[in-house]
């Protein structure tokens, strides 16, 4: 039985073939023009394809038919978020939560705006593709499932025939944590790792082909070794460089696999002096820093203070950053404290998003 236009387009979109999905949908315009799902689907395909103007037009058509569809609201919110118009984006996210209180995308997007909502950071997320996590969801990519199954089959075959050889040499994409075969760089990506047109790209680092591929291979290696901060550093190097969009997207996927550490399993904690020299390189890394807090400001579910790094002995201060918690931690200001937090950027300043604290009289 022949499948309808919407079903075919959804299948192509799940495979991330947005150009093909748009062609399929446009072929059914005479039939579906007044259909809300059709306009929302076409708007979303254009959104992922990077055609914001057309996406906005289709969403506006859909809005004349329905006002409460979550994917419509997510799509419109994403357009304003990409533009840096966080006030309008927030209005849409609030509307989404009124209709669907548990919507995770809306909650995550509002948290992103709260923590990373400056225009520079939004531009960086748009450039790296990370902003797509706030777009309407497309479902699981069937091609990835196929690649995973094929990878598992080859892995089993390799185990049968290679045996002990695997213990001697481990592929960078295959390690103790998970199989990353699907995001290895292709030969073409390795040969053409540099973006040819830099007119619309902001680059903090200009890297050679070899430097880009080396950074990516290091990121894979560090991830498999459980050293997520060093992996994050190499990912940041790529995301802020002249690497091609396809390589940045793979680096962004790898970033999604990184874990949140605790006090007992953080392999490497960058020093403040290194972070101060090149903040872009250490964004989203977790650190454990010692010091004292002052100028505490608390809200109903918020905590903010100046964190005097290295001042635990009250002899010298290595640096001062703002530390923020989304809940109120138990910190005595007259005693040294050890804070585990994530490095973020707010208005061009290094800020520590606190996750856990440790404080003892015998610090």
Walk me through the structure:
This protein is an alpha+beta fold and 363 residues long. The protein contains 17 helices and 5 strands. It has a 5-stranded mixed barrel with strand order 1-2-3-5-4. Helix 1 packs parallel to helix 4 and helix 13 runs antiparallel to helix 14. About 4% of the residues have low confidence.
Task: Set out the fold topology.
Blueprint: H1 5-14, H2 18-27, H3 29-32, H4 36-49, H5 52-63, H6 70-83, H7 86-99, H8 104-116, H9 119-128, H10 142-162, H11 165-168, H12 187-191, H13 209-224, H14 228-239, H15 245-256, H16 272-277, H17 279-282, E1 286-298, E2 303-309, E3 319-325, E4 337-346, E5 349-358
Parallel strand pairs: 3-5
Antiparallel strand pairs: 1-2, 1-4, 2-3, 4-5
Summarize the structure.
This protein is an alpha+beta fold. The chain has helices at residues 5-14, 18-27, 29-32, 36-49, 52-63, 70-83, 86-99, 104-116, 119-128, 142-162, 165-168, 187-191, 209-224, 228-239, 245-256, 272-277, 279-282, and strands spanning 286-298, 303-309, 319-325, 337-346, 349-358. Residues 146-150 and 161-170 have low confidence and may be disordered.
């Amino acid at each position: 039985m022949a499948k309808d236009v919407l079903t075919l387009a959804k299948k192509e979109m799940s495979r991330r073939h947005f150009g093909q999905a748009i062609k399929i949908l446009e072929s059914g315009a005479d039939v579906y023009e007044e259909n809300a799902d059709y306009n929302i689907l076409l708007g979303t395909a254009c959104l992922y394809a990077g055609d914001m103007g057309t996406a906005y037009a289709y969403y506006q058509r859909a809005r004349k038919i329905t006002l409460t569809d979550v994917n419509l609201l997510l799509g419109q919110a994403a357009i304003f978020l990409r533009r840096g118009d966080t006030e309008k984006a927030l209005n849409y996210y609030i509307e989404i939560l009124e209709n669907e209180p548990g919507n995770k995308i809306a909650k995550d997007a509002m948290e992103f705006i709260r923590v990373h909502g400056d225009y520079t950071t939004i531009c960086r997320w748009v450039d790296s593709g990370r902003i797509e996590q706030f777009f309407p969801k497309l479902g699981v990519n069937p091609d990835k499932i196929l690649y995973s199954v094929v990878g598992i089959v080859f892995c089993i075959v390799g185990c049968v025939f290679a045996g002990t050889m695997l213990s001697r040499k481990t592929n960078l994409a295959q390690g103790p944590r998970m199989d990353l075969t699907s995001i290895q760089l292709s030969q073409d990506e390795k040969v053409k790792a540099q973006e040819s047109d830099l007119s619309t790209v902001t680059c903090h680092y200009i890297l050679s082909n070899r430097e880009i591929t080396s950074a990516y291979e290091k990121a894979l290696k560090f991830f498999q070794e459980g050293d997520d901060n060093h992996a994050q550093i190499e990912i940041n190097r790529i995301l802020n460089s002249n690497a091609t969009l396809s390589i940045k997207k793979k680096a962004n996927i790898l970033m999604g696999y990184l874990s949140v550490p605790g006090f007992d399993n953080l392999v490497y904690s960058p020093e403040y002096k290194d972070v101060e020299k090149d903040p872009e390189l250490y964004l989203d890394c977790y650190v454990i820093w010692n010091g004292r807090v002052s100028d505490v400001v608390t809200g109903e579910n918020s905590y903010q203070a100046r964190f005097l790094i290295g001042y635990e002995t009250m002899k010298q201060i290595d640096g001062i950053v703002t530390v923020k918690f989304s809940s109120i931690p138990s910190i005595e200001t007259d005693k040294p404290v050890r804070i585990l937090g994530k490095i973020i950027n707010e208005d061009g300043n290094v800020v520590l998003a606190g996750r856990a604290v440790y404080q003892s009289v015998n610090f």
